[in-house]
Amino acid sequence: MGLKKMMVGLLGSVIAIGGFLEVATADLKFPMLVYRTGAYAPNGIPNADGFVDYYKMINARDGGIGGEKIVFPECETGYKTQVGVECYEKHKDGAMVFQPMSTGITYQLIPKASADGVTVYSTGYGRTSAKNGKVFKWIFNAPATYWDGASIAVRHILKQNMGNIKGKKIALVYHNSAYGKEPIRTLQVLAKKHGYKLMLLPVDHPGQEQKATWLKIRKERPNYVLMWGWGVMNQVAVKSAASIKFPMENFIGIWWSGSENDVLPAGAGAHGYKALTFNAPGTDYQVHKDIKKYVHDKGEASGDGSHFGTVLYNRGLFQAMVQVEAARVAQKIHGTSKITAAMYRDGMENVDLNAKRMEELGFKNFAPPFKNTCENHGGSGLAAVQQWDAKAKKWNMITEYMYGDSEVVDKLIAEDSTKYAKEQKITMRCN
Question: Do the bridges between strand 119-121 and strand 139-140 make them parallel or antiparallel, or are there none, so unpaired?
Fold first, then answer.
């Protein structure tokens, strides 16, 4: 081989190696556990697209975070817990934070990530008692937990019934997994407090078979139905409710059961269906203008760009924004752009997304403000109720953001987290 060819070949190798090293040693590595295929893809895709578009926008508009580019490798989980754990093991080296996008995966990662010193941010899902930062140092679930959601749904029902729901029947249609089972204890305690009868109706993965569930609902005639569903389960449930003519205004989903994908397949039958939310739909925000300018107009949208401004796309934006903000805070705290995983955790624990800061970030009126502290990793606990207008094909916010029953929820969190601390021999912090 001639000297010139040898040098060219060597240079190519160096470039290739250099490129690899840049990715492998990137300070700001945010691995994404996604499910763009399978039964949960209808909801997984728009959420992942929101993440990716936001990261791309930050890299293009700001040059990254403090001059450090964001690297966001995707790992397909198919919403399978074991695959999610394998993805974590594959990408944990150099990672700042993981967003499991599955309560089952989150439960498995809590001890692993805590031992490894890697932050897990399960936004509005996962183990509710992880809100207690005294016990769960590396786990965050702001801005609200499933127990907040359960109590807010009940609070909404109370308001509709002049504060008295004694003797009412409330059914919980839930994904028969760690995710769907999460609100049961809270709803049981609230049933005892308010005197309603709770019906528990599990739906097995993936959720396409619900005939028996809705036959029982038609027979038992509960006054209200709550739903903890995901993926195709939501679509089937809404269509099934419409087919038995269940009053849709009395059918309330958690925030993971309130996207456009969940209601559009039912057509006019979905009109009036309600769901909780902690972020707004639509594109009337500065962040969307920036994404369009720096990402979409350059032909670099994630996927086909069709999910832009939908509920789950916007939730992905919100989730990614919090993760990016945590990195900024960490850089400020430690006085360096080249933060470590431990430094990143400090940033997440000191995130303060007040109204002013939300506006600065392009999220004015997009979501309620929240603040993490050493003791509180679960945010404000605020959520609102949105309702589907089938004719206009849009979600409308019909309540203000409201708190749940802190008296009940805080007690349950304290009990569960204290028990976990004893089991795992964890010494309480934040003293």
Answer: parallel
